[in-house]
Amino acid sequence: MALRLWRKAILMTMREKKIFVIFTLIYTSLMFLTSFFMHTTFNNQGSTLTTYFILIFFIVSLMLSLLYAWIIVARNRRTWATLKCIGYTNGNINTLVSGIILYTTLVGFFIVIEVLFHYAAVFTYLQSVGLLTDLPTILISLLPVVLTFLMFLFVQLIAIFLANRKILKVRPIIALKKPGE
Amino acid sequence: MPVEKDTMIEAININKEYRRAGAIIRALADINLTIKSGEFVIVQGPTGCGKSTLLNVLSGLDFPDSGRIIFDGENIARSTEDRLSRIRRQKVGFVFQDFNLINTLTAMENVEAPLWPTVLRSKEVEDRAIAALRDVDMLHRKDHFPAQMSGGEKQRVALARAIVGKPRVIFGDELTGNLDPESETQIMELLKKINKDYETTVIVVTHRETVAKYGDKIIRMDKGTVIKGGN
After folding, report:
1. Residue B215: HSE in the Cβ half-sphere, 13 Å Cα cutoff
2. Which of B12, B29, B52 is nearest to B223 (CA)?
């Protein structure tokens, strides 16, 4: 049952193209930058500034995740109220919302992995043929990427928790009111 | 000798008050009524008479301040929200004035939606949705999104969504309020057919006099009280 709701959450996410694309791209950029600065710190190439950057990215990702959760709940209040009217429990709606939030993060993560693979391949090829040797080295090892993903996952769990609290407050009766009433 | 129908919903001494701008508005005052299984009930009255509040408390969307609502043998006046959700999933279908279809889902997906959180297999969910869409003559539009449909078509899809779970009761709140007279006739006749074919109890709140002819029982309300059709 939960699996079916997650599948439907993915379907609903993909149909909300604008918001999905915007947040996926933001998450991708943030994950890439956080992994890069983490990688730099781990290789002792970083300074205090890089640690600050990681902290800043963490806070930004937390705020964006909360914003995304808020948008999902607030923009679709009438949808959640309607679903409550047709028999969805708070738990069912929470499953849908957590599916939407986690799917967007996962897509962002896979794009980062994909970009890194392709960057590594292109970079290695260009180096091997002696072209563009002054290209900046942004080869990030797997550990910082995985740690960044775990950090983002933690942030999303906070967002899901807050979204769940907001969903509890959506009363089914809202579905019967006229839009904007 | 005619067979006595079972009681589907019984409202006993229902009271409900609202506070608006410091004033207390008595939306429901000592309401007592019985709705039998398979009845087609029309609730009518002027704007602000409490008919929508009555529908909300009878369907478990809102709680009365006092009194009991026995819904299919269970007092729902003090049930938890999750229990009420489960009752609605198993026994209730809703049709709204503004259709309330999910814009990002197709007609088929909208009709399937009430069955997603159930243990039914996906094939059965699909079969039931197809049957429901066929019942309302909207199967040819199953892959269309709500934005691609007219008001009457949206309401037929909403009706299919209401019947897909094989409910015991269908509640309609001004369900023809946004429709032209032709679509109103179509929707009401469909609802009447569903009421007859599946013996589903139907409770429709409306201010339109043209809808009254479809009801087996008319409940008239004024100033929070039932003036005709109560116990």
Report:
1. 21
2. B29
How many other C-beta atoms lie within 10 A of the C-beta of residue A168?
11
Q: Which of A89, A173, A178 sits opposite B61 (nearest CB)?
A: A173
**Alpha-carbon distances of A90 from A63, A151, A164, B101, B143, rounded to whole Å:** 24, 27, 8, 19, 28
**Cα gap B76→B231, rounded to integer Å:** 19
Alpha-carbon gap, residue B204 to B43, rounded angstroms? 6
Provide the CB-side half-sphere exposure for A167 (13 A, CA). Answer: 28
Half-sphere exposure of B36 (CA within 13 A, CB side): 12
Interface check A8 vs B, CB under 8 A: yes
B116 touches chain A (CB under 8 A): yes
Tens digit of each residue's pLDDT (9 = 90 or more) over A99-113 = 999 999 999 999 999
Q: Closest Cα to residue B111, out of B119, B120, B102?
A: B102
Cβ proximity of B207 and B174 under 8 Å: yes
Say how far apart CA B90 and CA B139 lie, in whole Å: 24
> B111 near B163, Cβ under 8 Å?
no
User: Is residue A31 within 8 Å of residue A108, measured between CB atoms?
Assistant: yes
The Cα-based distances of A178 to A83, A84, B93, B144, B173 in angstroms read 16, 17, 19, 24, 11
Q: What's the DSSP call for residue A175?
A: G
What are residue B173's DSSP bridge partners? B205
Chain B positions in Cβ-Cβ contact with residue A84 (cut-off 8 Å): 85, 88
Nearest by Cα to B117 from A84, A5, A6: A5
Q: Do A86 and B88 touch (CB under 8 A)?
A: yes
- For chain A, say whether B91 makes contact (Cβ under 8 Å): no
CA-atom Rg of chain A in angstroms: 20
pLDDT of residue A40: 85
Radius of gyration of chain B (CA): 18
Instruction: Give yes or no for residue A74 having a pLDDT over 80.
Output: yes
Q: Directed axis angle between helix A2-15 and helix A90-128, to 10°?
A: 60
ipTM above 0.90, yes or no: no
As a residue count, chain B comes to: 231
